[in-house]
Design brief:
globular; 2-enoyl-CoA Hydratase, Chain A, domain 1; single chain; Lyase 2-enoyl-coa Hydratase, Chain  A, domain 2; alpha/beta
Length: about 290
């Protein structure tokens, strides 16, 4: 069964013209993120990446709000698991189990960073709590005028813990991140655009999706290997020196770059005034000899 034919609790998936469109599809639940989300998303992203099913991923949502964040069922499942434990259980072992479980949740969004292909997110209405963790992991973000972002965790007496704080300071000024984190206030679309959290703001959902898909199509025309290399180089610079970044891209170019393939095709296409035809990335499983 292909990925687009599978039934997921949270998602609809469409793959056309080398663009994979992942749609959050629980509008009646404000697209909150239930237990299944945390295992299904990395599986979907990784399958698209590993099997080279697309060159770009677009993530969007349905209904009034992009997502209300982590579903209460995730918290209740964790609490029920703790309640079933023997009260004589060593507290250190219980805490260790919680720690490993939280790392597993964090892996959900790491798959976006680790993907070879760009991930674009289109946001309408509320992007709340865990959805901010989700958005901060994406390569680009776009939103409608009615969109807002809220680090909701502080409002329910906890600290955001699945990706917001390691990533958001690379997208926003540190003082602003702390203000949002400590107050739990809403950042609306105008402010999000002015400070660079989103690339652009649109008056309505339809205009946003039209433009985001146009950007995705433009990316899909480029060399997939060059796009992958660019994503690797940009992400690598986080927390590193300029010298380390330069060394990384030099190593990448030495190992991956072949001017007789993609550059030759790009230049020939420019001369002939046509779109270049680049080879797709290779499936990772085949490279490892697993298929």
């Amino acid at each position: 069964m292909s990925l687009t034919d599978e039934k997921f609790e949270c998602f609809k998936i469409d793959i056309q013209d080398k663009i994979a469109h992942i749609i959050l599809n629980r509008p009646e639940k404000m697209n909150s993120l239930p237990v299944s989300f945390w295992s299904d998303l990395p599986r979907i992203i990784n399958e698209i990446d590993y099997d080279a099913l697309a060159r770009v991923i677009v993530i969007s949502s349905t209904g009034k709000h992009f997502s209300a964040g982590m579903d209460l069922s995730v918290f209740s499942n964790a609490e029920n698991a703790r309640n079933k434990e023997n009260p004589q259980t060593d507290p250190g072992r219980k805490k260790g189990s919680f720690y490993k479980g939280l790392l597993k949740l964090q892996e959900t969004f790491n798959c976006i960073d680790n993907s070879r292909i760009p991930v674009l997110m289109a946001i309408q209405g509320g992007c709340i709590g865990g959805a901010v963790d989700f958005a901060s992991a994406c390569d680009m973000r776009y939103c409608t005028e009615d969109a807002f972002f809220c680090i909701q965790e502080i409002n329910i007496g906890m600290t955001a813990d699945v990706g917001t704080f390691p990533r958001l300071p690379y997208l926003l000024p540190m003082g602003l991140v702390k203000e949002l984190a400590f107050t739990g206030r809403r950042m609306f679309s105008k402010e999000a655009n002015e400070c660079g959290l989103v690339n652009n703001v649109f008056s309505n959902y339809e205009d946003m999706m039209k433009e985001v898909m146009a950007i995705a199509k433009e990316i899909a025309k480029k060399s997939p290997l060059a796009v992958w290399g660019s994503k690797e180089a940009i992400n690598y610079t986080r927390g590193r020196t300029i010298e380390e970044g330069l060394n990384q891209i030099a190593m990448w170019q030495t190992g991956m770059y072949n001017p007789q393939v993609d550059m030759k095709e790009a230049l020939s296409a420019q001369i002939e005034k046509k779109d270049p035809e680049f080879e797709d990335l290779y499936p990772i499983k085949k490279d490892l000899g697993l298929l």
